[in-house]
Amino acid sequence: MARLSANDRRSALVRAALAVIARDGVHAATTRAIVAEADMSLASFHYAYRSRDELIREVITFVVDQQEDASLAAIVPLGDVRGTVRSALQAYFDLLKEHPEREQAMFELMHYSMRTAELEALPAMQHGSYRTAAIALLEAARPLLGITWRRPVDELARILVALTDGLTYAWLADRDDAAAGRLMEYIADTIAAFAEPAAESGAAPVASDRTLSQGGAQ
What we know:
This protein is mainly α.
């Protein structure tokens, strides 16, 4: 293949690893299988990464960063928290629909690493990456919307990650867009119910009447 820069080589190997894991499972994602998918030599792999484990960590970072970027781009002052959260969820869901193989690979990584001694640190890293991304989203919403959260942001991030994991798993199982839409409405209601106007923002709207009447999580 044409000579690639170090960054392009690393990016190509990350995408190749994702493709192999999604198609054949983590157990099949050997360095040889990954370089074959990327149309590279083993020497190219070792020039880019010290080990397969380092590449796997880069795969997790790549997927989570893509999700975070898409959701952060949707964090705009839409007038209320619920609408903003719903917009961010839709951005995540659109990325999921565009690249379902990435989330399939992430689930495979989580389950495989739980059963594999040499990868025992990966589940905590993977979940921690999701939580960090959720914290960034919740923190970004505060100044944009003039709100504060009634519970610790780390606690809300765990709730958001758990609900988003459920959304992802359910859609990968049945590919039911309508059902996913209804679940995103519920998630938006739930997260918005934890918001209130920041002291300096006066009586700025926070959640819609629909949110309050449905009694999101308290």
